[in-house]
Write a structure and sequence with these properties.
The structure is a homodimer of 324-residue chains. Chain A has 16 helices and 2 strands. The first copy, chain A, has 324 residues and is mainly alpha-helical. In chain A, β1 and β2 form a beta hairpin.
Chain lengths: 324, 324
């Protein structure tokens, strides 16, 4: 079985080999720029591992794995424009380094590139894979739209928030591992169990992300803490705080959301204090644990040799215990 | 054989039947809005006619035809954001009626929708169709990037301009009719002849479009004349004028391009006068004719019963003699 490191290496190397033309440079340079940093490659790793559960030969899963990674980076590129984010992975975002028009168009080209990769080596299951990919891609757009709609809404309940997270983040992890499973020859029941595994891991992952923005060890985290608080981003902490806080605490929280001029550190401390008084660190950590356990239960139900589940299980532990 | 009207009706009706969800409304309403107006539907008509040359049964071509129309409208939506166009088909553009973020995301969703339609009824030729569609979609992005790059360049030659037009406009018409041909069972040689037919029609179409902005009968044209002149858009007239004008005339033209404050009608008259002195109406009309004749020559070479070419030939005449 392939280890995490082996999966990541395959993805890194094959992504480097993608032929991206030189001209027009304003279209293609941003694509190269987006694909350069060697991140965790969570989604393509899930494709390869999903395949590897059922087949020793993962070669047919490599192009789809790259497609998923390119698609993910397309969403980051366009989301950064919409959110007016200026930094991503410690570098200026595309629309800042170039301009918003170039960001829009090179993002479009990346989405098309994802489809190119998906059909580069058409497998027997191509139609199934394409159907799953299309459905998932559309759901990711829905999730991003809900996320944007939430910006001007202080009355979002947990269910609505989890639905948004499922669409924006979790379904792509779910589809990645299911896609791999289908290519590896899994039957529908096993493929669907892995979809549910990925979906639950995805939700846990995002809740964990919300948590890390507030409570991460800054040195390990690698990005500045409190960005979500400063930008009033609706996170699982904020929406639960808005539902739970009462009286003076509620007024104080709404004030922090309303006020246009504030001291950054003061706002972070003020909001974090409210979260802590509401026990939201512990509550969210428990929610992360619930979704992680649901994911592991799916893996448990998978009908295959137990040793074939080891890498996916270990990968999920790693994601849940990450400090960044 | 299906007439133009019959083809258009099929497209109109089937587009109305596309299921577009209600929620999130900010994602899906703009898609409905873009697909509402019943335009000429040039590209899907070409898919159906391309198929109909080789097969009486065009049912397998309908979804790909819709895919091409949805793709085309995706490019219009994103181009309007990039060009900051405020009106399209006599209505506010999406990014004006809603906002730019909604324009970006609903455009992304339309591109995904195009792929959904393309694989909705997978034909035997699916992999071939997908390959052609992907290649073409990427070229359309390249064309749009070159067009944007041209904005700040007053030294573009005719060859560079025609290359941009080929990518931005012509290849999609070419791919449309070729896609239809493949689905209809054409062999590679015939399919390629129809590709070249569509490519030449596409170039002629764009040059004609440039011409109509300056010389159309305003009443028939249905949009305000001179928009390209006012916005300094690089058209075949402007780039040839910049290459041909000398001395005082060249200085005058460059002045019109430079000046930020001007009377709209005065600028249109000033630039049109230069075009007329350089005979650019006649020159461009001849260029349109050359490309149209090349297209018809391709149709002529097509190995099939002459009567099966009638509708495509008539459609090309109609496009070339349009007043709007």
């Amino acid at each position: 079985m392939l280890t995490l490191q082996e999966c990541q290496e395959i993805i890194h190397n094959r992504l480097k080999e993608i032929k991206i033309p030189e001209s027009p440079s304003n279209l293609y340079d941003p694509i190269r720029y987006m694909l350069e940093p060697e991140g965790k490659r969570i989604r393509p790793v899930l494709v390869l591992m999903g395949c590897n559960v059922f087949s020793e030969d993962i070669s047919q899963a490599i192009y789809p794995a790259m497609a998923v990674e390119v698609f993910h980076n397309f969403t980051l590129l366009h989301d950064d424009i919409m959110d007016q984010s200026v930094m991503r992975r410690n570098r200026p975002t595309v629309h800042v380094k170039w301009n918003p028009n170039i960001g829009i168009l090179s993002g479009d080209a990346m989405l098309i590139k994802a489809y190119e990769l998906l059909v580069a080596e058409p497998a027997a299951s191509l139609v199934k894979i394409l159907g799953l990919f299309n459905k998932t891609a559309m759901e990711v757009c829905e999730g991003q739209q809900f996320d944007m709609d939430f910006e001007c809404n202080t009355n979002i309940n947990l269910k609505e928030y989890l639905n948004m997270v499922e669409l924006k983040t979790a379904v792509l992890l779910a589809a990645s591992v299911k896609m791999g499973a289908i290519i590896g020859g899994a039957d529908e029941a096993n493929a669907q169990l892995l979809y549910e595994f990925g979906r639950n891991i995805g939700i846990a992952f995002q809740l964990q992300d919300d948590l890390l923005d507030v409570y991460a060890d800054t040195l390990l985290f690698g990005k500045i803490r409190g960005n979500d608080i400063v930008s009033n981003k609706k996170t699982v902490l904020l929406i639960q705080a808005l539902q739970m806080a009462q009286g003076r605490m509620k007024r104080e929280l709404l004030n922090w959301l309303k006020t246009g001029t504030f001291d950054r550190e003061e706002k972070i401390k003020g909001v974090t204090d409210i979260y802590s008084q509401l026990n939201l660190k512990e509550i969210t950590a428990s929610q992360v644990k619930v979704y992680h356990e649901r994911a592991l239960a799916m893996l448990n139900q998978l009908r295959c040799e137990p040793e074939r589940k080891v890498e996916l299980s270990a990968f999920s532990e790693l994601l849940m215990n990450r400090k960044k």
